[in-house]
Amino acid sequence: MLVVPAALRPTALMLGTLLMLGLQLAAQDPARDAKQLEAALASPEPQAVAWAAHDASVLRDRKLIGPLQRALARWRRDASPDVSLHLLDALVILDAHVPAGDLMPLIDTEPCSVAAFVLLVQEPKLNEAELLGLFRRDWPDAKQGGDSRQERQCLAIGNLLATQAPPGFAGMLAERVDLDLEIVVSSRESEREAAKQRAEVAVRHVNLRAYLRPPMKADIGWPPRPLYQFAHPTLHMTAVEIPLPPPVGIRVFRRSSEDQEEIVPVLTVRAKAAAPADSLRWLCTVAGVPVPATLRRLPPMEPQAFVAAATKARDELQNAVDTLRERLVAARAMTETEAKLLERRVTVVVHDERTDQPVPLPKIPDAR
């Protein structure tokens, strides 16, 4: 009988480590077919499921959509966001249509939120109630031009719902619509100074070299982690762009923990109040009318001429808002009660950017 010294006997920890290593090597077998991956997706081991989802995204066999969805339903109930992320990633790559009930619990769960949103908007009509619910929740706190993940998601949903005009959407917008006319008066000298500042900003951005964002830290034993993010407006990323329905109007990129991502700063000089508030733009989309101008630039002029030009611009915007309200009611996109929220008068806000005219501009009365 062979006696093994105690020092050489395998401990429980050693056996567990060897078993885990064997599972990982088996999970990473690139030659697995769809049947083997389907079996692996039913595994109780989180890493085995994650690797199966990763390999399914490489194999791209649409027969795996059902097993991936069943695995997602199971693991999102188990509150396993790391496993759910890999399952969502495979479903995105396979262009799957996933029930909203499996996506909504993950829409606010990091790191799954953006990937879950990508799948949710692939069926905008079918998931209209869920999208409207998210918009109703987030819109009151969203900021115009906000840059957070939730604010970008809210903007994307608003762009999408404006083309579908679900009941209650227009009335929700009417509560926050801005009826301000921005009038900017600038002299030649102030225009030259503004142009000079824009040129200086451009030079700074041009001289700023592109850089490589280092790879994300990979989790030992797990497949490369995918990262989904809404595109930042001032950066151009070399990561893969995920196709979304055109009305969404927001770009989503995907990269992996294996990748080094090239980030190139992009110059974006946006004039103050250059675009109408999102709520007004969406209401015009619902009604099928042109978006009125909410910004006017005027050169220095005599007070009487300035008042006439500003009053004319104010009245044009007021008429456009009145027409918009009538169209929304006629199209039954808005009730008479909701339409009363749009009966507010246009307010004129004057920005005096002149540098060579000390005489103050006359006040423009609001529309009657």
Commentary on this structure:
This protein is mostly helical and 368 residues long. 46% of the residues lie in helices and 11% in strands. It has 14 helices and nine strands. It has helices at residues 12-27, 34-41, 46-59, 65-77, 81-93, 100-103, 113-120, 128-138, 149-164, 169-174, 188-207, 278-287, 303-330, 336-339; strands spanning 180-185, 211-213, 226-230, 235-237, 240-242, 252-256, 261-265, 295-298, 347-352. The strands form three sheets. A three-stranded parallel β-sheet has the order 8-1-9, covered by helices on one side. Strands 2-7-4 form a three-stranded antiparallel β-sheet, with no helix packed on it. Helix 1 runs parallel beside helix 3 (46-59). The longest helix is centred in the last third of the chain and has 28 residues, at 303-330. The radius of gyration is 28 Å and the shape is elongated. The termini are far apart. Mean pLDDT is 80; it is low at 12-27, 201-213 and 265-275.
The description of the largest β-sheet is:
3 strands, parallel
| Average pLDDT figure | 80
Q: Report Rg.
A: 28 Å
**Which regions have little confidence, pLDDT < 50, spanning 5+ residues?**
12-27, 201-213, 265-275
Q: Class by helix and strand content?
A: mainly alpha
Number of helices: 14
**How many beta-strand elements?**
9
